[in-house]
């Protein structure tokens, strides 16, 4: 919903209305839901806009919070629903609950019919989301909206959706203002009955949940990954179930890589080493019982120099063979009790650089923040350090483990003679190519050059 970041993080919620809607500029006094878009530039979020009367029973309560546990739960919800929001961290949550509420002019029989539902607004100050939860829905319409006083049905039923107030950006579920809205506890856009999740800071409200069935491509995050591999991709699109087998393939790589299920619409896959840069076609295969579905997407492999390293070499100018050196790291792209650190060297094979494991500089290391080790000589002159979880099997192929990387660096000899000799050799070769002398340069005009 356009400008909804401003609604949620700057203006915040201004009005929680008894009639099942949250408004931002003014109260919403109308109890009979009108079709979106509304007139008068009204900005509202309506989990269940209907004719509620708390004098007949029930209560409406709400609060905003930045409680750590609540933020953690909200973050987890958003990350599992929107795979591209892998780095999202909730900073503010607003919760409004219509608890066991009755409808307007309910008779003594009608007062037994109650609704309980909730709206949760979540933002990190940049991206914003809304969650609608429905615990119990037993009526759709109050008497003023044409509903029956005994059943709370008929007339103009409740509406579920959003209106940005600009006449263009709005959304309502198709059951809105129809008798079918009574079944909202059995409906969902995230395969959990009674739960709807939306992203509201985009130009149009975006559904959570599975998207590939509408013809869209895979949502892959991050889009740009290092060609060294070991990046954890969060991939959304197809709906998956616990026992499904998920695999991924990258262009020009015959290897089939198995993925893990993160949520009903998100899987996690590890990128392989790719000795090329640029856009790479990705093929995701879902084996569900005996049925196979194939989905495609795009991932861009980039030069490692374009990616922020996870490992930092302290005082890199002092990293010389034979010296004790210090390696430091912050947040790593994996969780582990113990880690391993490899030294890999770059060698040229068929005119392309390839990585080869040279040695381990640490095994079964506790997950501390720094490590000091002696830099030993290697088989190559350029090297890179890789950190990953300690494998259970010491002989396990570690190339498809989630990994963090250092920058690429030159293995400096202790006395620097390698560099001196390289410079002298370059100078000797340069002297064999005579430069033009000034008096031998004959200029000419563009006219003669073109002629």
From TrEMBL:
Highest taxon of source: Eukaryota
Q: Where is the NIDO domain?
A: 47-203
Q: Which organism is it from?
A: Mytilus galloprovincialis
The record's Gene Ontology biological-process terms are: cell-matrix adhesion
Q: What is this protein called?
A: NIDO domain-containing protein
A Pfam match: NIDO
The record's listing under PROSITE patterns reads: NIDO
SMART domains linked to this entry? NIDO
